[in-house]
Amino acid sequence: MRSFEYLAPSSLNELLEVMGDRAPNFKLLAGGTDLLVDLKHGPSGPKLVMDLGAVPELKGIEETPLGLRIGAMVTHSQIQQSALIAEHAPAMMAAAATIGAVQTRNMGTIGGNLVTCVPSLDSGPVLVALDAQVTVAGVHGRRVLAITEFFVGPRQTALAPDELLVDILIPTAMLGRATAFRKFGLRKGQALALVNAAASIAVDNDRIVEARIALGAVAPTVIRATDGERVITGRSTDDVGALREAAAVAVTETRPIDDFRASAAYRRELVAVGTYRVLEEALALATRS
Ligand SMILES: Cc1cc2nc3c(=O)[nH]c(=O)nc-3n(C[C@H](O)[C@H](O)[C@H](O)COP(=O)(O)OP(=O)(O)OC[C@H]3O[C@@H](n4cnc5c(N)ncnc54)[C@H](O)[C@@H]3O)c2cc1C
User: Fold this and answer.
1) Is the pLDDT of residue 58 over 90?
2) 142 backbone dihedrals φ, ψ, rounded to 5°
């Protein structure tokens, strides 16, 4: 590993000041599960690495007047063990449980996962299905973005070089929303998603009044299958055929690739199956009396 300067700021203000002065010549270190691989094997190393571990403003899971706030430094294991997540957004636990192995989940953070912005990132689909927002900060202030605006392209987010991700917010209106997540890989554990899918559903008077379908690993970033969502919105909760129709339409909204893990045709099959299953599961949760 090349040598670099190491700083561990103890407040967000201190961190932002250094970021403003030194951008873009630094790297932020969260859990390090991705970054350390880059530091060891990447083509060029940063001059400065700033550890986010001592910044209190990036930690914690809490209820706020606007919704459930999850700090960027919250680990996947903390998500799996959080009573607040279990109560308000349990599909996040299901997604976290599929990320790597225990060691990866103990070190890896939700912020690091979102910032890597690989198409297959497993935290993404549930957050899109729950209409999450993210707060980003730089020396010039804070911005709040929809999670779908944060994902710009493969390994590319809306962060400017002098900005960082502070937290994620599940808006109050989406807390407790019936939501499901599925991941398909080549094996049951430690697998990159060939496809991951999430759906959230709200029902009223035996009708689906709102549905969100989110798909990962089948486009440059996690996407919403809005045409598929339209197919089921307004349909009766007894109309099981509607879910299959929506799943078939969702397939047409994806752009899967052929690679050594799977063909595009196989991934399209997984989108159809995965979308149907998450819709079926979310609908069952939404209609449970
Ligand atoms: C063995 C193994 C298995 C894995 N399996 C999975 C898997 O199944 N599913 C999956 O989705 N991922 C998987 N990953 C990828 C990785 O573990 C996750 O993406 C993890 O959540 C990254 O978080 P981190 O805290 O370790 O990020 P780091 O490695 O510390 O950082 C990753 C990147 O994000 C930047 N960054 C981190 N936090 C912030 C912030 N708050 N603001 C701005 N920039 C920031 C860093 O500068 C760096 O560029 C796996 C990794 C390994 C090594």
Assistant:
1) yes
2) -115, 150
Three-state DSSP state, 81: helix
148 closest CA partner among 186, 114, 172: 114
Strand order across the beta sheet in which 223-224 lies:
178-184, 195-204, 207-216, 223-224
Task: State whether 115 and 200 are in the same domain.
Answer: no
For the CA of 120, the closest atom of ligand 1 is 11
Pick from 120, 139, 174: which residue ends a domain?
174
Using CB atoms within 10 A of its CB, is residue 25 exposed (0-12), middle (13-18) or buried (19+)?
Answer: exposed
77 lines ligand 1 (CB under 6 A): no
Strand partners, 71: 167
Q: How confident is the model at residue 122 (pLDDT cuts 50, 70, 90)?
A: very high
236: which strand partners? 207
Please state, rounded to an integer, the average pLDDT across all residues of the chain. Answer: 96
CATH of the domain at 137: 3.30.465.10
Q: Which domain holds residue 20?
A: 5-51
Same domain, 170 and 182: no
Tokens at residue 120, please? 């297959």
Per the structure, the count of domains in the chain is: 3
Residue in the structure block whose two tokens are 């935290």: 123
Number of residues that make up the chain: 289
Of all atoms in ligand 1, which is nearest to the CA of residue 36? Answer: 29
What value does the CA radius of gyration of the chain take, rounded to a whole number of Å?
Answer: 19
- Ligand 1 neighbourhood includes 112 CB (under 6 angstroms): yes
Kindly indicate the confidence band of residue 124, based on its pLDDT and cuts at 50, 70 and 90: very high
Tracing tokens 């595009």 back to the chain, one arrives at 264
Q: Where are the beta strands (DSSP E) in 38-103?
A: 48-51, 61-64, 67-71
Q: Is the CB of 50 under 6 A from ligand 1?
A: no
The residue out of 51, 73, 88 marking a domain boundary is 51
